[in-house]
Amino acid sequence: MGSTTQAFGDGVPSDSSDMLQLAYKYCSARLKKKVNGIVQDVNTQSFQNVVDFVRKNNSKKQGNVVGRIGTPLPVGLLVVGGISSIDHAKSFRVLCSLLNTDMCCSANLHGGSLLKSKVWNAHSEAVSKTLNSLLKQVSGLETDADDACALANWHEECGRGRTVAVVVEEVEAADPEVLKELVHVLSDLGSKIPISLLLGLSTLGNHLYDILPSNVVSRTIIQKFETKPSMQQMDALIEHLFLDLHDLLPFSLCPRTISYLDEHFLRRDMSLDAFEKSIHFALVNHFFAEPLCAILPCFEYIADRSHSKPPEVNTGEIESAGVLKDVNKLPENLLERLRKNSSLFVGSSGDWKKHLQLAIQMSIRSRREWVLALRLLNISAAHVGCTGAGSGFTFRELHRDASDPSYFAKSTDYGNMSSGLHLVAKLRSKIEELPRDSVLALVEKWEDLLQGKLGLLADALKELEDVKEELQSPTLSQGTTELPSKDFQDDKSGFLSNSNAQAESDSENKLTSKPTRLSAARRKGALIAHVNALALSQKQNSKGHADRDITRGVGARLGDLLFDVAVHHAAKCPINLPGAELFCLSAFSSLKQSFLEPSPRHALEEVLQNPTQHIPFGKLSSCMQGGSNHHDWYVAYQSLQKFDRVVDMQEWCASFSDGVSIKQLPSTGKADCHKHRNVGKQAADSRPQKAVRLTQQLRQRKSRSSASNTRRFDWSSKDPLVVRFLQSVRELQISGIVRPCKRRQGEYVEHLVHDGSVPEVEGIEMED
């Protein structure tokens, strides 16, 4: 592959061309492994049934048990209808890998090899070649033996106790006479060794009876198996590539590439193998067009080989990761390019190597930091967030990008990003932190940029107008807290009881007749709170089912990313999102109309076109049943928030497939407690007193049980008093009156806070 240097570790090339090759090969290997894993996961049940069939029908032939001549041969018909013919080999390779264990060995043959030649004794010659290939695969030895006796002798010497499985894919391509002879030979061989025959058919029905005569079929024990259609395998691959956060690949596809693959592969061939090859071509173009992107796959390759311990990164001093000692030992051409573009990393060009070193270390810390390091290393994505240790989008970068329209004119990978929607979304999140005059000047520059230089969509201009209205609103002054908008208050009403919801609507009318629009950051924070609350509730309802975790472990990060995606989708503007945002974009992309059937996307569009103020949740609930994709559920909810629609959280949760109960949602935090303190106050006055009364009863019962040396109260106890107490506390949490505190071993502490009128209750000892 080329010369190596110790700066990168053993096996890592020293020049840029070899680095690109290594990055491509490493990503290709990871992609191949991922695709094979997806095929196995989708067909797990079918393949497991085949393995059980092989073991079951040959268990009686193990050891010294010898059958008679003409023993029925176990034949499994693996129906692969719906899978493209070029995908057969991939499915059968995965099946053979499952069969190759200590108890079984397999050989994979193609039906096209079972063809007779135009010579005398053609059938015997074709079968001999088949047996020779079979013996080579099961034994792993190069041999010229081509008869059944050689296979029996090998099994007697080396393979005793192991079942032999012969897999023939695309059996329709085989010559019927040769296949008939092969069945006879294997059936006779079955009296000596445990052997099974697995035939892959591309169509349903009794196709084997059309190929073989009845007297041959009578010597077999036939059982049918079916694999999943190619559409399901394709759906699984797309979902893993773009929606799975737990197993990120060391590369990502921009929407332009996704659109190309969608047009040329997904809609035409519908082949998993063709789609995989197309990604390989995209990788070649990607790495050779952007050499800096090849750095991270090389680092991950080093980490896989060295199994290095994730380094600790201190803010004061950057410690060496042990993999790359010095940034100066990077390839010269990459260093030169980084030096020329050093202003894209930090404000001053003197510290760019320091931040690059930090980015390299962070890329090795964990897989979820790949995107951060990629943003730091990729010049074309520098305006997304590349300051220091990933502190986020700074005003300096915004101002520099806005004042330099030629920056976007030179950009190739993220040219569509110049529409400004992504920057507008980031600008919204920084409104409260930046000086008002500076932000207004920045908005005006972006308006000129969109109108004069680029002349792009009016949707982006509309977004900027909304920002200007929010900034120029006379009801807002710098440092003043904004009034919640109507959609935010209706959204929060889902956390209240029915009586509180009515009281809230009464108090809402008293606030203002024309509420100010909620800022993007505030709306995003509220949504993240909902995501986290629903995630905790879902974990409590389905313990032990980690795969059903609706946030997949990254609720806050997911809500942050999906907010931007909802903005981009609502504006109908194609945005090239870098890194992790791609998995969100695929939820609304045109990868396939059948990505989810029925798709929440179509129901969402119908809802948004409805001029009424109330959301018809019945239409959405029909799309949320049957394990629909949770990411689409969140995107739909966020898009509704984007369009300022009235969303009742209680009805929204009821439309979810798992039936998330509002009463099981935890408190939204101390800030929400203060926010809802005066909302529904009269309706909730009796609740703290009820909780205090139940608490006193529990204490009395606890003291009696302690005196009699009986066991303490169990948190999961079905005692009516305990149940009533917990229900009362949860109602207080929901209404914002109770603020839960940390729960230690054997102790559960609750603080009741209601304008100081309710005494503080704590120290209720219960076992977890």
Automatic annotation (TrEMBL):
Chief place of localization: nucleus
UniProt-listed InterPro entries: ORC3, ORC3_N, ORC_WH_C
Biased composition (Polar residues): 472-483, 495-516
Cellular compartments per GO CC: DNA replication preinitiation complex; nuclear origin of replication recognition complex; nuclear pre-replicative complex
Domain Origin recognition complex subunit 3 N-terminal, residue spans: 16-294
Domain Origin recognition complex subunit 3 winged helix C-terminal span(s) in chain numbering: 601-753
Amino acid composition bias (Basic and acidic residues), ranges on this chain: 484-493
Subcellular location, record wording: Nucleus
Keywords, sorted A to Z: DNA replication, DNA-binding, Nucleus
Sequence segments annotated as region (Disordered): 471-516, 667-689
GO biological process: DNA replication initiation
Family to which the UniProt record says this protein belongs: Belongs to the ORC3 family.
Name of the featured protein: Origin recognition complex subunit 3
Species of the source: Picocystis salinarum
